[in-house]
């Protein structure tokens, strides 16, 4: 089971990080995406980065991050969440401390899907299954905005109470 939710929020830092990690692919990154080592390339990447448009995001956003992700590192998510918070945008930020790029632990996949289901039901209309025990065995931590997803705070509190017994 593999679940992918994240994309980089800052293409400049993402490309720099990827190029440093994959020296053999550096030229390909620069050719296909942009070269942050040049002024024109840096401007091109910045203009296309979600972080550069954080002030235009008005709709609710759900950000899910694996804390051990070597490809889209947590500072990417931290940056966009902070930018959105500073503009008053409704953002919910969930982190799974024991996941990497793509969630693989079944209990975390279930928790992530439950949170996404409630988020989408709220944004698009419709209904969602009760959280029930879907968060109980997961490692999910909500760093910001649990109050933006109906029932999430209560489900987290219930899950925490059950895990401390």
Features:
about 160 residues, mainly alpha, Rossmann fold, three-stranded mixed beta sheet, 3 strands, globular, disordered N terminus
Describe the secondary-structure layout.
Layout (H helix, E strand, L loop, with lengths): L10 H11 L4 H7 L6 H9 L13 E6 L7 H13 L4 E6 L9 H19 L16 E4 L7 H12 L2
Parallel strand pairs: 1-2
Antiparallel strand pairs: 2-3
Helix pairs in contact: 1-2
Write up this protein:
The protein is mainly alpha-helical and 165 residues long. The protein has one domain: Alpha/Beta hydrolase fold, catalytic domain (Rossmann fold), CATH 3.40.50. The protein is 43% helix and 10% strand. Helix 4 links the parallel strand 1 and strand 2. Helix 1 runs antiparallel to helix 2. The radius of gyration is 17 Å and the shape is globular.
Q: What general outline do the C-alpha atoms trace?
A: globular
Strand order of the largest sheet: 1-2-3
CATH architecture, by name, is 3-Layer(aba) Sandwich
CATH superfamily caption: Alpha/Beta hydrolase fold, catalytic domain
Tell me about the biggest sheet?
3 strands, mixed
Number of strands: 3
Predict the CATH topology.
Rossmann fold
């Amino acid at each position: 089971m593999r679940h992918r939710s994240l994309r980089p929020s800052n293409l400049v830092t993402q490309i720099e990080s990827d190029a440093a990690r994959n020296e053999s692919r550096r030229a390909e990154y620069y050719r296909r995406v942009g070269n942050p080592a040049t002024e024109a390339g840096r401007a091109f990447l910045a203009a296309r980065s979600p972080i550069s448009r954080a002030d235009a995001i008005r709709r609710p956003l759900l950000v899910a991050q694996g804390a051990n992700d070597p490809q889209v590192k947590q500072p990417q998510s931290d940056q966009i969440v902070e930018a959105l918070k500073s503009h008053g945008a409704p953002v919910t930020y969930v982190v799974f401390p024991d996941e990497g790029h793509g969630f693989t632990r079944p209990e975390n996949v279930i928790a992530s899907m439950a949170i996404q289901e409630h988020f989408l039901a709220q944004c698009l209309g419709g209904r969602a299954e009760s959280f029930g025990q879907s968060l109980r065995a997961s490692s999910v931590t909500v760093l910001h905005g649990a109050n933006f997803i109906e029932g999430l705070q209560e489900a987290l509190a219930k899950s925490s109470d059950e895990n401390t017994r």
